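SEVERITY: medium
COMPONENT: batch folding queue
REPORTER: lab tech (J.R.)

DESCRIPTION
The queue accepted two submissions in a row. Attaching both inputs and their returned structure tokens so the on-call engineer can compare them side by side.

ATTACHMENT 1
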Amino acid sequence: MKLRRLGRTNLEVFPIAFGGIPIQRVDEDTAIKIIRRAIELGINLIDTARGYTDSEIKIGKALKGIDKKVYLSSKSQNRTKDGIYEDVKTSLRNLGVEKIEIYHIHGVNNREAFNKIFEPDGAYYGLLKAKEEGLIDFIAVSSHSNDILADLIATDKFDVIQVSYNFIEREPEEKIFPMALEKDIGIIAMKPMAGGVIPNPKLALKFALQKEFLVPDPGIESIKELEEDVEIAMNLTPLTDEEWKEIEKTIEEMGSTFCRKCDYCQPCPVGIPISTVIRSESFLKRLPDETIRRGWFYDAYLKAQNCTKCGTCMTRCPYNLPIPDLIEKNIATVREYLGE
């Protein structure tokens, strides 16, 4: 198995990382079995976040007694120096380790967040402090905005980036990948299966793996999924003509309704978090039931019901999505899930 070098970190990692979002949905014993099986199969990079409820805790318990080297990646949405520094220490306790290799400032998706993290008391300097104290090795950042991510890369302050990339969201190929490669920044590709909405997830993962300079980060919540993903990675072949035809067909079918999370549609006049609402299908597949019924996702669902179909969002969307119709459709999907 040819490992992949994660940019200037010089970490040699398995071709896919273990995405820690879905293990929120399974019980602790099941999560531990999945993680340990992943390590047994060769996966040596596990990615999680402070915001993924008990994901860090489950990973920490799975790592107890493991004698193989496993690299850890976590994240915090805290924007202050002291706040993210304390989150690093919380992550260390949860994961049961003395050091975390990669720590991200999580979800820097807009200009306000970009400016905040670089203020004198901003999150970047909290991670710099953690690095100086040996609590983390590498400072990283994740973003759903390619424009903001380009500016983050240009600062040359990050060793690793995490970017949405799949065969529908191919925009990073134009600017993000060349910029990151020029600076030798490691690239983790989140959402390689578009959050679970691409009909053929195996093909989606195979597509992402064609770029040997990045490490896809699929979310995994069963041993069956895990073993299928590992098999694709270990027996990777070029995409066939038939597979390209299937990709093109899927893009054609999904392209008119697929949200890229750019948030150019914002702000909504009635405060709807549009990109969250119109990606409900993905969240219903990945989030714990409690978050869907009582957390931030449920709050977004309630706000969506205030949509007036004014059409302001549609005038801003660079992909010409029928946003009011998509909001209505996703409200119905969530309502059915909730049994309302």
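ATTACHMENT 2
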Amino acid sequence: MSVLDNFDGWKDFLGDRLQNAEQGGMTEGAINNIATQIGDYLAKNVDPKNEEQRVLSDLWNAADDSQKQALAGAMVNLVKNTK
């Protein structure tokens, strides 16, 4: 089973990676930049596996660069607040 199959599993995976990045001293700006790069990669290369991912994909594809950074930041906050 892939980490992308289940949205809660995906959030847990991201939360773990976020915690590791923060403990490693990565700045919030760097984390948000990486989150934006991951969003670009996923939108271009990964077919959404569930409805939550489909909504995020549709939002991402409709967004301009500034809005993509805001979406990535919102995802970071989402996983940060669920840990």
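NOTES FROM REPORTER
The chain has a mean pLDDT of 90.
No errors were logged for either attachment.
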